[in-house]
Every structure is written in C-alpha cells, then in structure tokens.
Amino acid sequence: MTPQDMQARIVRYGDLRPCKTAFIDAHTPGSDQKENFTIIGGGVSESPDQHVHISLPHGFNIGAAGQPPKCRNSLHNHRTAEVFFVLKGRWRFFWGEHGDAGEVILEEGDIFNIPTNIFRGFENIGTDYGMIMAILGGDDAGGGVIWAPHVIKDAQAHGLVLGENGKLYDSKQGVSLPEGVNPMPLLSKDELAKVDTPTPMQVVGGYVRRYLDMFALTQSGKPCKVIGERGIIRDRPGFEVDFITRHCATSQKHSHDRPSVLMPMRGHWRVEWDGGSATLAPGDTMSVPENLAHSAVPSMTGEASLYHVISTGDPAGATWTGA
C-alpha cells in the first residue's frame, strides 16, 4: 500500500474537525461549549453537521469529545459499548438518571469501559481544554443515544427538539419538526425502572483501569490486554483494546485479518508497513488495513504508549453484568 493511500487512513489531531451541534444539549447552558469529533464511522451524532474523517467500516466507531473547563456532557444511555480514555486533562464521569448514583475521576491515560444500560455523563474538571477519545461498539454505534428525560426537557427550553427519527431540529435556526415527525417520547417510569444503577464499587472496580498500572504491566515485555475475553477488564463488547509501551513494542511486522486502529497516548511512534512509513503523535488516529504487515515502535526516547483497537466480530451488545 502506497504512502498516499495510507495518509488517507491517518487523522491528525491538528486536523480534527469539530461539530458543535452534535447532540441535543448543544444549546443547554453548561454543555454548549463542547465539541464532538467523528473520526472513524458515523458515530452517534444527531446532527447533519458532523464531519466523518474515515467512513470505512471497522466493526466499531472512533470519536472524541473536547471541552473547556466546567463544560459537561449531559446524561445519556447507549445500547452498545462505550469506552473512553483521557488524552488531555482531568475528567469526572458520573452516572444515574440524575447523575448522583456514583462518580469517578480519570486522569490522562486512564480508561473507562462504561457499562451499557446506565445513564452516564462527563465533565472537564481540569484547568484547560481537555480531550477524551471514544470507542463505540458496532458499525452503526447502536442506533443513537437515549437521553435522560430532564435533558430532553432542558433542550426544548433552549430551542432544540429531538425528533422520533433521531434527528435534531433547531428553532433558533428557524427549523421545526417536519410534518408527520413527532418529538422523541420521554422514557416512561417503567422504562426508567429497567435502567441499571450500579454502585461506585461495582463500576470503578470492574470497568476502570489506571494508566500507571497498565504501564507497569507492560514491563513484563508483553502488551497489556485491557479489554477482551482475557483482558484486565473481561468483556466482549465487539472489540479488543491493548495497551502498548516501548517495553513491549517490537519492530517485527505482523498483520490482522480485520482493520485495526493505533491511537498514541504518549510519545511519537513510527509505523512501518510494506510500502512506506509514517510517524504518529499523541491524539493522532491511524487505521491499518486488514492483512497489511506493519510494525509500530517509539521513534524518540522518553515515555511512549499507545492504545490498539481491533474488532472481534462479537455483537456490540450489553457489557453490564450486574456483578
């Protein structure tokens, strides 16, 4: 594969194109400063304004959220997996219909495999613009977002209406619901009762892993299997996530029978393949084609780490077991 072909599969951090109207809370005070990025796949955006950098199916979606300090993403639910790792800043993740069932603070490099069927939200509690990278299960990302009822009500008060077709309509732009399209109905009490509300111990103990702990595990000379059937988070959400550092990186080329994705966290990484090479920096995202022999090693001294994602072909279904 030529370098030109591969360049089309590399999304540089500095070239990310944000969408500021991606979701229903885009006008709600406290959430109106956030930016959403759709890197690989269509994601779960409700706005036609989103820009998809790489549309090739991978079996999962890659996205990102960028927010200034004190900006939050409103409480919502997904039918498929949602995994975040913190690229920049300090973030508070919270859950429950009103966000008061539990919370956890994540630092740079930490990863959170958020269980499905719980309302979740997140907030930048750092002192500068922050960025979190997201992996969503399935090529269709589960068909959208399920919002907590109060989020939909707040959005309507600020001019945004979500149609039952999953699309947003902005009255501030003179757009109203089309004829025959009703507003998205609020969840009933019976439906809300079926949403899980796990304890902080259940969520933090089972679904959060810390950067420094994973970094230490790679000093054995092997990648840290973060999410997978044999991972330190034992789950099969439709993809696997590995954590790789210079302690376990190898220049020996290998290939996969499915597309894979490289997402540097620290340092610069030189990726070589049969036909060319490229250097990746933190925040860059690279899609590696199936059956392409390649390698990835740090190109400079100092700390170096990256996340590797590959589809497993499992259904991108529920991860929460109630354990």
From TrEMBL:
SUPFAM superfamilies: RmlC-like cupins. It comes from the Bacteria. Residues 69-132 form the Cupin type-2 domain. Coiled coil: none annotated. It holds the Pfam family Cupin_2. This is Cupin. It comes from Sulfitobacter pacificus. The lineage of its organism: Bacteria, Pseudomonadati, Pseudomonadota, Alphaproteobacteria, Rhodobacterales.
